[in-house]
Amino acid sequence: MNDLLSNWTEKQRYALAGAGGLLLAAAFPKLDVAGLAWVAPGMILFAALGAKSPFRAGYVAGLAFHLAALHWLLFIPVSFYPILGWLALCGFLALYPAVWAWLCAGSVVRGPWSVVSETWLARQAWALFCAAAWVALEMVQARLFTGFPWNLLGTSQQRLWPLIQVASFTGVYGVSFVVVWFSAALLLTLQALAHDPARRHLWLRHVALPMLAVAGLYAVGWRQIRHRPPPARTLRVALVQPSIPQTLIWDTRADLARFEEVLKLSSLALETKPDLLIWPEAAVPSHPRWDTNLWRAITNHVVAGGAWLIMGADDVVPRGPDAEDDFNSSFLISPRGEMVATYRKRRLVIFGEYVPLVRWLPFAKWLTPITGGFTPGDGVVPFEMPDLGARTATLICFEDVFPQLVRESAAPDTDFLVNITNDGWFRESAAHWQHAATAAFRAVENRLPLVRCANNGLTCWIDETGVMREVQFGDSPDIYRAGIKTAEIPLLSGAKRAPTFYTRHGDVFGWGCVIVGAGGWAALLSGRRGRSGSQADQRSAE
Question: How many CB atoms lie within 10 A of CB 378?
Fold first, then answer.
């Protein structure tokens, strides 16, 4: 690719890599310019291919991307902790684009795809390898150190509903794959035109395959959307968004006032005669299961309204005479005021809900504002409402960003999923929209509606095709205010739902990409060792 790269200085390449990272950030909410995601990976590759250190160029791009896309971490209402967390998290996440740039650029110059500049077939193989390597690293990002699958590339295409239906087979990773494949092919097109400007038809040779793939996915996805059967029955759900500032949630003196606000909004919601009332994460102060006054107020409210209730609150379970376990929990309460089921959050927020290795590294507790920590739950708990003929499963906070976790909750007789969350930590920022866009893929992957009830920000429900519904409060553009929403959620007709390929088999596609990426890594390292040995032999002979 020397035709395009020969006149660029090292600083210019790093500047281009940083620009590519910023464009990638702009593809996500709130700017939400999805088309930029189809260009940005190619820009990063272009910068890395000519740089002395492709790894460093990729790191610059990754750092620019994450610092911009995750800037909402700075809105957490505590002193200097958000800055430390923002810098540390972004610095770590930037390693993934850095490794990707190193793998892709290394395979062009001296690895298994070293003939990329000579044959059309090798060029196509290289573009596919770039896509597989990107997905492989997203798979690692979703799992390493408990995982952080936030703003995976495919998520930026959430509004392209026909395209994202492929997630029911491949997960979100399939969308990431086609975006990177097209972007790498576009780079090859520019190189071909720069080498021979007179042959303008050359662009079609390089982008034809990914364009056909995207067109095919669009056609199949559009057909799936158009031919959905109408729901046989629905469940009327009322969602309460109290919009309590995070500083008040931490202030125990405000517990009674914020609880009364939840009850006031619930009274309005119950006037709509819902079958199910949902409160968000941490809606109830203290430990309601052990607080007689709180529990009586909740159950009296439910009995008077005649609706089922899912609510979020902390829970505590004694563990021996001098110890106890704290849980971030959700509870299902029947219209008779009985606690039917309790789910305990399984995937906790690092440095937000627990401090890792604090027993061996006690100084780590000074890196976070939390004074204690939660215990993770140990499994999925179905919430069954027999008189309504409905069954759901709850996810708390950011559990809905983990594809491999959510599919465990998508049993064949599950009618819909519920996510209760508190994104009020991040004020009126892009975090709400990024979280909801990620959640939309869980609905598509498992072909299940997903109901979101947030303390502040984006209370809505997402249908099985990934479309967000009931986003606003009537005609008001202010999604962050306190209020209630009602929705009619489609239920199963009686027979069990046919699970999607993704629900049945999980990340088969993603693991296939991991194998391809690992093979490229091994071949690249092997090539380096071979060259080092040849150079050593040559020096010995001399």
Answer: 8
Could you say which DSSP state residue 393 is in?
E
Active-site residue flag, 397: yes
Cis ω for the linkage preceding 365 (within 30 of 0) = no
Average pLDDT, the chain: 89
**Catalytic annotation present for 496:** no
pLDDT tens track for 115-159: 455 678 888 899 999 999 999 999 999 999 889 999 999 999 999
Measure the CA–CA gap between 204 and 208, rounded to whole angstroms. 5
Q: How far apart are CA 155 and CA 17, in angstroms?
A: 21
Place of tokens 């809905």: 400
Domain 233-493 sits in CATH 3.60.110.10? yes
From 90, 261, 345, 353, the catalytic residue: 345
CB atoms within 10 A of CB 203: 16
With contact defined as beta carbons under 8 Å apart, do 472 and 479 qualify? yes
Selecting among 90, 104, 130, 397, the annotated active-site residue is 397
How many whole angstroms separate alpha carbon 141 and alpha carbon 382? Answer: 28
Is 10 an annotated catalytic residue? no
Question: Which is catalytic among the residues 138, 281, 353, 399?
Answer: 281
